[in-house]
Structures are given as C-alpha cells and as structure tokens.
Amino acid sequence: MPPRERTDNPHPDSQPSRKEKKRRAKRDPFAFAYPGWFYAPAGIIYGILFLFPTIISFYFAFTRWNLSSAEFIGFDNFVTFFTQERLFRGFINTLIFGALTSFAKVVLGLLLAVVLTSGIFARGYLRAVVFFPVLVSTIGVGVTFKILFDPFDGLVNEALAVIGITGPNWLTDPNMAIYSIAIVDIWKGVGLAALIYIAGVVAIPSDYYEAARVDGSNAWHSFWHITLPLVRPATITVVILSLIGGLRTFDLIWTMTSGGPGFASDTIASVIYKQYAAGYYGLSTAGNVILFVLVTAIVLPIYIFLNRKSKEL
C-alpha cells in the first residue's frame, strides 16, 4: 500500500514572520508594492470619476459659475436653498420619503421573508412574484403607476368606486403626491429587502428553533428571540440600501410628477435637476453637496450603531 501524502505543513515555522517580510520589503520594495499595481487602474478611474468631481464640487458650491467663469459668493447658495420655500420643501420631502420607504421596506421585507421561508404552498413561485418588481425598469414602473393613479380613468380609483369609495387625487393633490410615490417605491423595492432577509433567515441553524420548541416557546417568541436578533446583519444591509436609495431618489419622482404639482413632491435630487436646467449651476452644485452631507450624516451613524449592536450579540 503506497504511503499517504502528508497534507499538513511539515515545517510550520517555515512561513516567513512579519519581521522577515519587512526585511524582504526593504531589500526589494517593488516586490512588496506588487499587489498595489492591480488596484491602481481601478483607483485611478475611481479618483477621476468620483473623488475629483466630489472634491471640486465643494468649491463650486460656494460660487456663481458657468462654463467660462466662477464668482465666489460664500454661503449664498446654501442660504438660498434653505430660505426659499420651494427649495427647502425638497429637503423636507427627502427626509420624509427616505424615512417612510426605508421603514416600510424593513418591516414588510422581514415579514415577507418569514412567510416565504415557511412551509407555504408554491413558495418558490411566490418568491419570484415578490422579487419581480425589482427587475422592472423604474421609468416603466413610474409611467405605469401614473396611468393607474389617474383620478378619472385610472384603474385604482375605478376599483375603489366598485366598492363605493371615492378615490383621492393620488398625484395631483399636493398633500398626497409624495406619499403616493412612496407607495410605488415601496412596492418596487420591497422584493430586494425580502430577498436579503430570506438569505438571513435560512442561514439560522434549525437547531435553535427545535431547542426553543422543546422549551415550550411559541412562534412569536421564536421570532422575537431567535429570528429578529440573528437577522440583524440583513437588517443593517436593508436599512443602509433603503436609506441611500430613498434619500437619492429621482427617476421615479420625475417620471410620475416631475416634482409637482408645483413643487409639492420635489426632493433634493429633483431640485438639483431643475436648478441645473434653469442655469443656476452654483445652486445646483450646492444641492449636490447638501445631499452628499445629508446621506453621510444619516447613514454613517446608523450603520455604526447597528453594526455595534450586531457585534454585541
């Protein structure tokens, strides 16, 4: 019988130590920097397309500029943004839209994940149905729901009329428009949240639930004390993605209302577009900076808090 090959390292001390690696790096610095060359192309492209425009936009936000000149005006653009009602309304709508859609996607996504990981009939088909809206073009979704929400001929109001309910002016009522768009955004994005949660739920060992049943735990206690804490990494992902997407949303709003009626459903992104189209480039750039700071100021602390809580479990 031939001798078995050894799979372990016969000389565990043969691996170079950290000090040895440093000595080698000093002797041959190019070899030590060799892995960095693989990152260089991506880093250069990232710097040109993202870092440089981001940094320079902070300067242009303090100017009144066009393609040929730039006049430094201090904080005037920011003062204008927060003092003019039609601009500040976009800031408030951004906060409302981001908070509402993110909360709904977390709650509905988790509930759908729990249902779709149970022994429900046609589970695979239902998962596909839930995820399908994610694959549809946002522009297509916006156009479709704009037709469905028509106050006179829309299918939604006609369906409500059948049961004796007078449907609202979904997209033409200034107090209703932003919430109607939020409903559509939730419908389109909840499938991705559910998919992320499904991955988190199926990763939980079944032994935990069996032990809980032996101890007399019911379904609610199992969900509250096992499922909810152990899907916290999925929750972090869903919260971050939903918040970033909600705060930066533009295409759905522009397709359905163009920020109207008036400026009732404007967000920062649509305000930026309108100011740029009108030739107010400095004000538009200031809006970009405000949006960047807003997303960072909201998302980063939430991520740190949730990630810290996750490590404590």
UniProtKB/TrEMBL annotation:
Annotated keywords: Cell membrane, Membrane, Transmembrane, Transmembrane helix, Transport
An example Gene Ontology CC term for this record: plasma membrane
Keyword Transmembrane: yes
Membrane topology, from the record: Multi-pass membrane protein
Location, primary (coarse class): membrane
Transmembrane segments: 31-62, 91-116, 128-149, 178-203, 223-245, 285-306
Region described as Disordered: 1-24
Compositionally biased spans, kind Basic and acidic residues: 1-11
InterPro entries: ABC_transporter_permease, MetI-like, MetI-like_sf
Domain ABC transmembrane type-1: residue ranges: 91-302
GO terms for biological process, alphabetical: transmembrane transport
Subcellular compartments: Cell membrane
One Pfam family here: BPD_transp_1
Similarity section: Belongs to the binding-protein-dependent transport system permease family.
Designated name of the protein: ABC transporter permease subunit
Organism: Agromyces luteolus
Lineage start: Bacteria, Bacillati, Actinomycetota, Actinomycetes, Micrococcales
